[in-house]
Structures are given as structure tokens and as C-alpha cells.
Amino acid sequence: MTKMYNxxxxxxxxxxxxxTLSNALYLGDSRYxxxxxxxxLKGYRRNxxxxxxxxxxxxxxxxxxxxxxxxxxxxxxxxTGNAGNILLYRRDPNRLPKVSEVNxxxxxxxxxxxxxLITPGRVIRSQxxxxxxxxxxxxxxxxxxxxxxxxYAERNGYVRGIVKEIIHDAGRGAPLARVVFRDQYRYKLxxxxxxxTEGLYTGAFVYCGKKAALAVGxxxxxxxxxxxxxxxxxxxxxxDRGALARSSGxxxxxxxxxxxxxxxxxxxxSGAKKAVVGSSxxxxxxxxxxGRIDKPLLKAGRAYHKYRVxxxxxxxxxxxxxxxxxxxxxxxxxxxxxxxxxxxxxAPSGQKAGLIAARRTGLLRGTQQVREA
Length: 373
Description:
With 373 residues, the protein is of the alpha+beta class.
């Protein structure tokens, strides 16, 4: 009998405790439910959020209020870490909703670290490309470095100019040459700014036109040059005044001419082959200033002055050295990426950091055979 009595008492106590806890959790007892500190959601003041105390005191089960009666906040947004709590938050129906309260009911961007969700942090470096707040540094340039306007004289004969001076252009590795021509239609002189080629000097004559001689510094249509000619400052389209092979030390090579479509194939400094129309002009020779990058900068001050007149691209901070909010590679107790550095092509722009849609990674091993196109 004693054992049965003890068992009965333990069962009664257990039922009482379970009933008390369940009622407290269900009715929102302050000892077990969310505290007022947890109830202070974004956009709500503490006095604006009240628990339905009348129903809690009377013991009646809370009912879902209608849309006309109150504005209920989703329990998923309100109960953080308290699964199973059914709490109703109600604001004064006579008060107009605030903008923050309206936004709370809309789809919000997830907060960082909430329920394991990773949120977009700040706008990363790759998202700021092709736009920004920095002033362009083109106002340092002396003049646009381009060929003469394609006129009747160049299309059918040639014109002669003289190099007056060779100047430095801020932010450009190649020097520029001031070439003076006589105006073909008015009694005046025209000064053009060409990209200087190796071997050009002040006082040298420069000939431009279809019938100009094949000499260093002269400008001719590519159709008038033999195969193997070294050229620079090539027009991609006839009359655009120069677009290809313009950097210091760069040059292109004429591969061949096509009589069918009248185009000329050239090999660009990158090794790629391109076909341009035969009437596109080019300068004979190599762009001056070659070997510029062979000399090391050696110190940060020189790099500062180099990029100060170019663009805002130096110094460049590594992604692993940033905070998690600034870069996908940021954060951690030591500098490491923490995940694969490859990223999908269709990933959101805030995740585009690392190796974008890489087919393969790592060093190339073994002998590589160059395939001619």
C-alpha cells in the first residue's frame, strides 16, 4: 500500500506541474514567456505592445483578433528562441501606424546572424565598379592622343607634318608628340597630338596618307602595308583616329590581307588575331616608352604618385583582411577565406568575389602546347 500511495502522490504532483507549466506557456505567464525587453521589436515602443492580460487573468483561451480589431504581429518575428509560445501583441487601434510598423509587416532583409541567415553586408568593391563618387582624372591630360581627321588628302595622297615637341602626359606611360600640319583648306596651321613611336625626334617629318612612305612614325592605311609590318595606334573602325595597341612598348603585326572582303588580319599585343577593314589607318613602329614596367617601384611613395594621376585603385586591400560585413572573404580568427574561392556566374553581385565561374583552378602542370588560331 505504501508503494502504491507514493506512486499515486508522484503522479498527482507531476500532473499538477505539467498543467501549471502548460497554462503558463500557453497564456503567456511573465515567468516563462518573453520579457518586456524581448517584446521591444523594431518600430514599437514598450507601451505600444501589450499582452492580452484580461484573457490571461480570467483563464480564457486567447482568440485570434480580427483585422478590424487589432494588428497582430507574426509569432515567428516575435518569438526568438521560444518555440511553442503563442503570444498576441496588440497596439492601440485608435493610433495610426508608423512607417516602421508598416515596414515590419513587409518582407524585411534578414539581419546578420538571425536564425543562421547570412545577409548582404555593405556594397563590396566589385559592386562599385563603373560608378562612384571619385572625380575622373582625365582633366590632367594634355590633349586627346589621336590621329588626324580622315580627310580627302589622306584618302588620296599624303600630307606632311613636323614634330615640334615630345611631351609627357600625366597618367600615360607613352610620350606624346606635337605634330604641326598645314591646313589643307584654310591658311592656318593645325597641331595634332600623336602617340610617339620609338625613333621619333623633334624636327622629324611625319607623312600621313595613302601614298606616304613606309617609315617609322608615318601613318598609312593597313591595306598599303606589307605582311609582317610592325604597327601601333590602329583604328578599329575606319576614321575612329586610333584605338588598338596604344600603350607604351606595345605593337601589332600585320598577318595578311584578304582580297575577298577587303580586310586585313593583325596580331594584337595580347596574341589575339583581329580583322580590320583595309582603310583603317595605323602608325608604323612601336610605341615609345617600352620597358617601363621592368623597373620596380620599390616603395609605396612611388606607387602613390603613379596611381594618383590615374584612378582610385591603389592601395588595394585584400578581402581576407576585411571584416565580414565588408567582403565575403572577411572575418575569422586568422586570415582565411573559409570556403571555396570559386563562385557561380549567376551568384548575387554581393557574392561575386574570388574566382568567378572558374573552369579549373591551380597551377598548370606539365608542358603546354600553344595552338595557333
